Hints:
InterPro entries: DNA-dir_RNA_pol-M_15_CS, Rpa12/Rpb9/Rpc10/TFS, Zn_ribbon_RPA12_C, Zn_ribbon_RPB9, Znf_TFIIS. By secondary structure, this protein is mainly beta. It is built from one helix and nine strands; from the N terminus they run βββββαββββ.
Amino acid sequence: MAAIGSLVFCTDCGNLLDGSSGDEKAILRCDVCGTENRDISSSAITTRSKPTSFPSALRSKLSAVQTLTEDDVQKDAVIRQTCPNCGSKEMRYYTQQLRSADEGTTVFYSCDCGHRFSINN
């Protein structure tokens, strides 16, 4: 009989034996040829691998991660839209789905002067 980890195979026909428990006193009977085999599998399998054994694009980018502060994060996108209140050439905007999924989103615009308005797409 041969054992590979917790898998036990019949010595006569090579069939995979069922019911392996890791108990060396247990006898396993082959369903194909009827041969009785001792259970020589290990009850616990421990494997170890190095992080370099499984290359990962994400792991290689860990050193390229930037730390951002709250001031660095821009909450709204900027668009070239003239503010109807003050005439500024840039406005901030964000979109939100307010109605059903088969209808367009609502675009919310805001200017540094405090003027806000929305457009339904």
